[in-house]
Amino acid sequence: MLKIRMLSAEEMSIPVAEILDVKALKRHLNQLRGFPLGCRQRFLLHGDKLGDAVELDPAMELDLVLLEFAEVSPARVDDLIAAAAQGSKAEVQSGLQLPQNPNLSREDGRTALMAASEAGHIEIVNLLLQAGANTDVADVHGHTALMFASVHGHVEVVGLLLEAGADKDVANGNSITALMWASWRGHMAVVNLLLDVGANKNAAHTNGQTALMWDVADNSGRTAVMLASNAGYVKVVDLLHEAGLVDDSI
After folding, report:
1. Tens digits of residue pLDDT in 70-118
2. Residue 43 forms beta bridges with which residues?
3. For the chain, what are the domain ranges?
4. CATH among 1.50.10.10, 1.25.40.20, 3.20.20.140, 2.60.40.1930 for 69-167
5. Was domain 168-250 assigned CATH 2.60.120.260?
6. Fold of 2-66
7. Do residues 139 and 160 lie in contact, with contact meaning Cβ atoms separated by under 8 Å?
8. Number of alpha carbons in the 13 Å side-chain half-sphere of residue 58
9. Which residue, of 115, 140, 145, 233, has the fewest CB within 10 Å?
């Protein structure tokens, strides 16, 4: 059994049969005790900080320090968001190790997770999620990280966000969902993934257009599948036929 001491003098004994390293231990304690993820859990062995990749031994006696987020300036917030957008792993890690709150945003509500998701930097997205980034925070327009990833066709990022619990059906101020964005931009792989996880096919834009280009006309008499066809998104239309969501009479 791995022994862990906290500053409060509380002690825990953790079986390490299925917990191979420090990173896995952090996840385990997050699920077991609700401890914060990422760099806010700091493990020490004989006073030395342990990195996430350090393998665990049942004979270890570790000290655990739970850190509060550091106070940072708006400039530091902007720096983390810019680093996430650029895919700069070293800069993002540096900010998170302060530890900086990954959910801090610019005045327009944009967060580092949104920036990384929009750019398709899956490694950065993963780092931010491990640090406790909120998948469902929205900017001033109601756009979430999942929407940014979907509209740009970053299917791996979409999958990672969904695994982290992102709301697949959340809509922006115009009632546009991630599924709508992916459909209207012709990103078949993203559409398919969102369908697989049960995204709402019946959600509708405020102007009457349906979420998944199914057989319902908008206020101008245009069906969503017509919009897809006119835009040249043949593969998306084919996918909708296969899913049984498009009437062949259209």
Report:
1. 999 999 999 999 999 999 999 999 999 999 999 999 999 999 999 999 9
2. 64
3. 2-66, 69-167, 168-250
4. 1.25.40.20
5. no
6. Ubiquitin-like (UB roll) (3.10.20)
7. no
8. 5
9. 140
Distance (Å, whole) CA 80 – CA 105: 10
20's tokens = 């191979």
| pTM of the predicted model as reported, rounded to 2 decimal places | 0.83
